[in-house]
Design a protein that fits this description.
With 422 residues, the chain is mostly helical. Among the domains are: 140 residues, no CATH class; 101 residues, Arc Repressor Mutant, subunit A (Orthogonal Bundle), CATH 1.10.10. The chain is 73% helix and 3% strand. The longest helix has 81 residues. The chain has eleven helices and four strands, in the order ααααααααββααββα.
């Protein structure tokens, strides 16, 4: 009875462990399967941004072919690097790494343009708006400075004319004839200077009116600029700004012609089409380098490489039952096994000294090694050593379990025969 209970308990714990192991294996397997569409989606996303940037410099169909080649090289080289130990074949390893770096450089460089456009679109719009404001501000500042100088000169001339009228009235004007000196009154001499004073006064009053009108137009232009970035109808608001700017230029031009002034050249503002134009990829984007855009472009390719690298740990194709039996029997013929620094089981595939002395033919087991290397179940470390890939352990464990089961059955059968004979 005690033995029967022990067997039941053993089967119970074995069943729970088997269930946990099965669930874990299923979960890991699903993750590996799910990795494949993720890699494809990342590659498509990276390819789209690469094609977008590349198509602005060369013919679109050629850009498409190059993009497909770039993404294919990234995935293929990532898979190959995972299965190559640099000590095993240095030339192949570094050639694959170099190919991967060139493909990544091309992909990230042209993807950068798309991410730059997305991340900097609002900034570029603000910069364009600020440029318009700054151009108008600089122009109006120069006009205001000249306007101030003109008003200052006009007031000085009017003051001087007023003093001359006063001097002419009291007969103290320096240019008055001797017979008119110190004679007080509104004579012909006074009337001449009074006419000059009235004329300058009239000019100043007219100039003040025109400057007041100009100030109103400038205020309207500045108000339009202030509403430009918050308006729901951007096109209408922008054209109002252009119209207001044109009115200010016309008013300033008329004042310039009437007064004979050399006013500053008005800057040429961008058209509405230029103001709302989308960013087009160009080499100038690297001048205003955006770390965020570059990181986004590199991040997509980084995850593509990382997941492609991890995919190598899944065999490209399963083994048949006959191949599994062949591989298991051939691997059992090797004798030198140890755990390497990667915590993987590795084995020496060279003949031992005894085998060399006996001229042992290891063709069958070397064939099994080549088959496992080709299928991704083994990874080559150097010319004489290979290590187990993670997906080889379950296969060997299954075969070992079957072998142990067969031995137990054989032992049980032998014991039963002995009992029957007794």
């Amino acid at each position: 009875m005690i033995n029967t209970g022990a067997r039941k308990t053993e089967r119970k714990y074995a069943g729970v462990g088997y269930l946990i192991n099965s669930v874990q294996t299923l979960f890991v397997g699903m993750l590996r399967i799910w990795t494949i569409p993720i890699v494809l989606m990342l590659s498509i996303a990276s390819g789209f941004t690469t094609f977008y940037g590349l198509s602005h410099f060369i013919t679109p169909w050629i850009a498409l072919v190059i993009t497909v080649a770039i993404q294919s090289i990234i995935i293929i080289c990532s898979l190959e690097i995972a299965g190559i130990h640099w000590k095993a074949n240095r030339l192949r390893y570094f050639s694959v790494v170099l190919s991967l770096l060139v493909a990544l450089l091309a992909s990230i460089s042209f993807s950068y343009f798309k991410f730059y456009e997305i991340s900097q679109q609002e900034t570029i719009h603000i910069n364009r708006l600020n440029q318009i404001r700054q151009d108008i501000k600089n122009y109006l500042s120069k006009v205001s400075s000249i306007k101030g100088d003109v008003l200052k000169q006009q007031h000085a001339d009017l003051k001087k004319a007023s003093e001359e009228v006063t001097q002419a009235y009291f007969g103290t004007h320096p240019s008055a004839a001797e017979k008119y000196k110190n004679q007080v009154g509104k004579g012909p001499f006074w009337q001449h200077y009074n006419g000059i004073f009235l004329e300058k006064k009239l000019v100043l009053e007219q100039l003040d009116k025109e400057f007041v009108e100009l100030d109103k137009k400038i205020q309207g232009l500045q108000a339009g600029l202030g509403k430009l970035d918050v308006s729901n109808d951007l096109e209408s608001s922008y054209y109002k700004v252009l119209a207001g700017y044109g009115d200010v230029q016309l008013q300033i031009g008329q004042l310039s012609n009437s007064m004979g002034l050399g006013l500053p050249q008005a800057p040429l503002l961008m058209t509405y089409k230029q103001f709302i134009e989308e960013v087009k990829p160009s080499i100038s984007m690297w001048n205003g380098f955006s770390i965020f855009a570059f990181v986004c472009a590199a991040m997509v390719d980084f995850f593509t490489v990382l997941l492609s690298y991890r995919l190598e740990f899944t065999a490209p194709g399963p083994l048949t039952k006959e191949e599994e039996n062949l591989v298991f029997e051939c691997l059992r013929q090797f004798t030198e096994f140890n755990i390497n620094e990667n915590d993987e089981l590795q084995m020496v595939i060279e003949k031992t000294e005894i085998e060399k002395a006996k001229r042992y033919s290891d063709w069958s087991r070397m064939f099994a090694v080549g088959l496992l290397l080709n299928r991704g179940f083994l990874r080559k470390i150097d010319d004489r050593t290979v290590e187990f890939a993670p997906n080889l352990y379950p296969l060997v464990a299954e075969k070992m379990g079957d072998k142990i089961t067969q031995l137990r059955r054989a032992a049980l059968y032998s014991k039963q025969v002995e009992i029957n004979n007794e």
